[in-house]
Amino acid sequence: MINKVILDNGVCILTEEIPHVRSAAVGFWVDAGSRDEADSVSGVCHFIEHMLFKGTENRSAKDIAEALDRVGGQLNAFTTKEYTCYYARVLDEHLELAVDVLTDMLFHSRFAPEDVERERNVIVEEIKMYEDTPDELVHDVLAKALWNTHALGRPVIGSAGVIQNLSWGDLLDYYDRHYRHGRYVIAVAGNVKHERVTELLSRIFSDLPAGGPPRAVVAPHPSQRVECREKDTEQVHLCIGSQGLRLDDEHIYVLQVLNTLLGGGMSSRLFQKVREQLGLAYNIYSYHSSYRDTGLFGIYAGLSRENVGTVLDIVLDEVNDLRNGGVSEEEMTRAKEQLKGSFLLSLESVNARMSRLGKSQLYLGRVQTPEEIVRELARVKTEQIAAVCDQIFRRDKLSLASIGPWQEDGAWSAALSRLG
């Protein structure tokens, strides 16, 4: 059962009681991400995530690391373009300990100058490691190609140059503006009681002031650009993409089915054709990311330079087939069952359930029931696939990004002409 309470200051507490498990997951979702940064402090949000693990007025960094380790729990965090989440998973009897540690990190972190300098080096090393991972980095290159200077086109982690110049004051300024008011969603899932959780969390969060600075959300305008970064790698890491759909778009489930058909798993068209039938790539898949006012639909392939042109042609031929209604009812049924099964299986994890609560509340202002989601997937029709595919894959809206030993030599232009 899912329950929700909204405190007077706007803090939202969500619980999902799952009495047959012995664990509980709790997530503190801060409604702020890299999109809320100025370009001059790009990466500050992720920097703050690091600093919250570096010690509080009550615990050293080692104390924080040991607090949940000693009871077999897990403690972690992640930063995205639109929100930041600090979360823990513990045995149900240790939920109060998890809440205490997370609260201590969130509201009593020291931000000691010597810790800032040490962590600055850690993050620069993290950036270097990320830049040595072209199959991950290429997705940020695609976002930059698609959205150029818009905040959604910047990497969450920032750049080494900006991180080196961030000041202690920059960190505190962002923290004060985004962490010291009621723009939180607290999600708890597992063997918990709603009343107990609400009482515990209300004592902590009810004193926060309401509101916070208004978000300056300006939708990006997609561009058609090609961004190829030469790098001495064995493979070319290639992404093509276009503007997708926001999470509350009426066609979001159609797009999910389209993604599954095209590149969502080993049975998808691209995986079967490019890897299994022709052996042209080791890895190829499609994906979709939703934001508050837009989305990004991407297709990734890791392949040899000499196969780039052929694979681009195959990808756009498959897109064309879907645009022209080439999907069979059998294929549709298989894709929808795949999505349904994957979604329902994910609900067996308390972490996944907690994440679903937090993200749904942030983006939709409510939590959809599993039955509602399954029903929406079942309603998707073949003709809708063609319409959404036509909306997403317009020749004048597609961008390409690559990292590796390849530059656009006309192959992309030639492939685009296949879209008609």
From TrEMBL:
Domain Peptidase M16 C-terminal: 169-339
Residues of the Peptidase M16 N-terminal domain: 13-158
Molecular functions (GO terms): metal ion binding
Family: Belongs to the peptidase M16 family.
Name assigned to this protein: Peptidase M16 domain protein
Lineage, top ranks: Bacteria, Bacillati, Bacillota, Clostridia, Thermoanaerobacterales
